[in-house]
Amino acid sequence: MKLSTRHLNAIEPLTKADIELIFSQADQFKEVLNRPIKKVPSLRDVTIANLFFENSTRTRLSFELAEKRLGADVVNFSASNSSVKKGETLIDTVNNILSMKVDMVVMRHSAPGACDFIAQRTNAVVVNAGDGTHEHPTQGLLDAYSIREKLGQVKGKRVVIVGDITHSRVGLSNIYCLQKLGAEVMVCGPTTLIPKYIHELGVQVEHNLEKALEWCDVANMLRIQLERQDTSVPYFPSLREYSAMFGLTQDRLNALSKDIVVMHPGPINRGVEITSEVADGSNSIILNQVENGVAIRMAALFILSQGLTRK
Ligand code: CP
Asked: In angstroms, what is the span from residue 136 Cα to ligand 1's centroid?
């Protein structure tokens, strides 16, 4: 029971069989998570360091819960209160932590490729918890898993990803994961927030939200990543105008000829890309996504642990 890759730094290199292996293992762990005692000893004596060089709520807590529910020993690192603030480099930081006999590293970093950089220079098994604008593989997996849970399968489903595609690691991981599982993918947003290379990925592009919603079975609404945008060059006139053109409202859902599933990876900017009425409404599976994140991360960590070469 192994993936075709030693690390989980991206969905792009995974096979469909890899993704299905993670999903079937997640099914088993989801059953464990619904028991009164939610722990199994599958990662006993495995030590995992969660290295967060960027802020996180869902991903950080979800990985930590997944690790603890598998019986791993866990240490947590946040750059904001570490010796990074004194000028320590990424590789020095990671090597010092690994010298304390750490087996696996879960890492979030603002630089695309940071997780590959660590994977190539250390012996640890590395899991990418989001690297800049590159990928967020466990988010892509949990999103596709949540669609499979809600609609029975991913194959043949039409999924539109709406918003800031240019700066979104979630968008890219979703595109790769959904396509490998046989879904049709569309992106929707202002031209300035759709990358020029998008056609090479085989996705459709639509700039009219009403048409995109009518086309899809699932709408995954992304946050505007203001922290990654070059604010000297505005991508749209104002958040108010963005919201008027690309925000998901109950009126827009009511105007459709069918029910669609609404997703959001979080954190939500309520009233910008999605209204509270929709985020908290009956079409939304946003909290199911978060719940499934624990089972998906348990599955990924457990399968990757099979590749550990411990001394
Ligand atoms: N979805 C997601 O990555 O959320 P966090 O930034 O809170 O981890």
From this structure: 9
